[in-house]
Amino acid sequence: MPQQRRARLTRQAIVVAAAEEFDRTGYDATPLSAILRRSGVTKGAFYFHFASKEALALALVESQARRWPRVRGDWLRRELDPLSIAVGMLNEAARLIEQDVVLRAGTGLARHRIATAGCSDSEPDWESLLLDLLRRASEGGLLRPGVDPEAVARVAYAALVGARVIGSTRGPGTAARMEETWRVTLQGVASPEWLSNRRSR
Amino acid sequence: MPQQRRARLTRQAIVVAAAEEFDRTGYDATPLSAILRRSGVTKGAFYFHFASKEALALALVESQARRWPRVRGDWLRRELDPLSIAVGMLNEAARLIEQDVVLRAGTGLARHRIATAGCSDSEPDWESLLLDLLRRASEGGLLRPGVDPEAVARVAYAALVGARVIGSTRGPGTAARMEETWRVTLQGVASPEWLSNRRSR
Q1: What is the CATH number for B34?
Q2: Contact call for residues A189 and B186 (beta carbons, < 8 A)
Q3: Do residues A37 and A67 share a domain?
Q4: Residues 6 or more apart from A148 whose CB is under 8 A from it?
Q5: Does B189 contact A184 at a Cβ distance shorter than 8 Å?
Q6: Which residue range or ranges hold the HTH tetR-type domain (chains A, B) (predicted)?
Q7: Other beta carbons less than 10 A from residue B82's beta carbon
Q8: Alpha carbon separation from B9 to A148, B57, B103 (Å, rounded)
Q9: Model ipTM value
């Protein structure tokens, strides 16, 4: 195996092992030795790729920060009404967080503030995007009269954060919780036409 | 000042300073020196009270764990219907988290898993309590027909967790976010009678 490819695989093994350990045990309670054991990588090989556990955590944060713009871009380009985009996008974000341990650990660490520097852009601004989509949904008559689109956007964003943090520690997972939030809130929020269109799809 | 009282005040100064630093900067990024500087306590005095930064964090977790049962007990003893108890209790929890930095930092650290040991009972089981209250609300006809009380309980709990994590980093604070979640969801969830009783109170 060419040396460059082997180095890439080693780095990936470290990243996945770290994500699994941080996700299961927590960042603080995970010693470097547990990451080495899980990845089957020597200390020397580890330090070839990362200067410290902290540097590894920052790599996870950067990795998730690179993933989200594509997910968001894909949804925004779909020929769907803005409310359907908001619903579908957050449901997919929750599904990805649940399925992909590297993404999940990185998203959690972005909130964790491992280091004060270099982390300001580590979280995508879901709330602003949702505010924009819900405002457009309101203008297009997709919400019931009197419903505050900004309140709905904030509730949906807090639901995603809450569903990620609670995760699989109890009851349904992140994706089922996000879908449940939409089911519970849309009933009193979306226009009857939008709801019946959704049911008939 | 008697020695015992002085020791208590020193301990309290350390706890408050640590809560403020952890809340502002994050647990990992806060060095012990920042806590000493903020509290005006010497290293020697610090180590008289706490063995390490980790021991101090665990004290914050234990302190919040002692607060919640009283808050919950007070609400459960009120002569209110179960839906009003659920709403009032979570709104008060959000308000306390927003107002009290020691409670807020401790509640955040309980999720943070500083250490793997001794933290299993560090979070009150809000979701089970909410499931019970919402089931009783459903049996008492306080929810609209067809509404799943367990889904509402899970959404409310995730909203509290999300509102705490987002906190004051952007837009409205934890308390306003929790109230907003109830406002948005109750409209499609609570019975028209319950809603009109609430408005007339």
Answers
A1: 1.10.10
A2: no
A3: no
A4: B184
A5: yes
A6: 8-68
A7: 20
A8: 47, 18, 18
A9: 0.88
